[in-house]
Write a structure and sequence with these properties.
With 85 residues, this protein is mainly α. It has one domain: SAP domain (Transcription Termination Factor Rho, Rna-binding Domain, Chain A, Domain 1, Orthogonal Bundle). It has five helices and no strands.
């Protein structure tokens, strides 16, 4: 499989949440994926705890991240490239 075509390859859940927050903000995350950890006193840490226990919510985050990545809204960061190669 061509890893270059998989926008989730090498991207951690924490990276996804952080980038989605940076790009869209907590308010939009809470609107698109209506879960308490995005809507009430949101933090990356609390979100990761919930998302790791809740497959349907994690899938929604992954799907949104992949959609943005395919649209080139989530270019790889320098830190993503350091670990590969």
């Amino acid at each position: 499989m061509n890893q270059g075509s998989d926008p989730l390859h090498g991207v951690t859940l924490e990276m996804m949440v952080t980038r989605l927050v940076d790009r869209h903000g907590w308010q939009e995350l809470g609107r698109q994926i209506p879960i308490r950890c995005f809507q009430i006193d949101p933090s990356v840490k609390s979100s990761l705890v919930f998302l790791r226990k809740t497959p349907w919510a994690r899938k929604r985050v992954e799907d949104w991240y992949a959609y943005d990545a395919r649209r080139k809204l989530m270019p790889p960061s320098d830190s993503d490239q350091k670990g590969s190669g």
